[in-house]
Design brief:
The structure holds 2 protein chains of 2 kinds. Chain A is built from no helices and 11 strands. Chain A is an all-beta fold. In chain A, the strands form 2 sheets. In chain A, strands 2, 4, 5, 6, 9, 10 and 11 form a 7-stranded mixed beta sheet that branches. A 4-stranded antiparallel beta sheet of chain A has the order 1-3-8-7, with no helix packed on it. In chain A, strand 5 (44-50) and strand 6 form a beta hairpin. Chain A is globular, with a radius of gyration of 13 Å. In chain B, strand 6 and strand 7 form a beta hairpin. Classes of the chains: A mainly beta, B mainly beta. The interface between A and B is medium-sized, with 27 and 23 residues.
Chain lengths: 113, 114
Amino acid sequence: EPEVTQTPSHQVTQMGQEVILRCVPISNHLYFYWYRQILGQKVEFLVSFYNNEISEKSEIFDDQFSVERPDGSNFTLKIRSTKLEDSAMYFCAIRDRAADTQYFGPGTRLTVL
Amino acid sequence: GESVGLHLPTLSVQEGDNSIINCAYSNSASDYFIWYKQESGKGPQFIIDIRSNMDKRQGQRVTVLLNKTVKHLSLQIAATQPGDSAVYFCAEIPVSGGYQKVTFGTGTKLQVIP
């Protein structure tokens, strides 16, 4: 199973501040995803990223969100101006071209105060 | 709309017994299904998958059954252990749809009674 790490494990921020969540896949992968899980709810798709561009995004992924892979390794999710309702666990997932299975990282808990 | 849902939100099982977790899906375009296990404070962990051209697949202590006629998916865990306590999500993926976003169900909490 591919290894995925995420940093930070917990981020506390004030409403209106920018946050950047990072995902580091240990091996080279082609497909990257961000999901979020509000406490007690199901995991929701945010965005998929392939060939250095967004391939699909959900309604949740509005103009306040952006993703990039700046150095060919880290995969980041940026929230420009956080809102209280952005508080959630954010999971990065990866997938190889040869397989359909997505493997998830341990998540970053974002708390917006 | 299309959705994936679970019949039982909480399941309590005696240690050593078998567990069966059920899931209903409604997107007939889904080609691929996965069961994930999520322990408290952790990310979803892959357990087992099945493609739409199969009706059964077995792993180590786990079996997934797919009934496309009634759009039903189940996860069977044999000889349930305390370490199996977690929330289990079924998830569906329309493989032919492109970039394969995972649609998760609402989850079933499995409690193993020692």
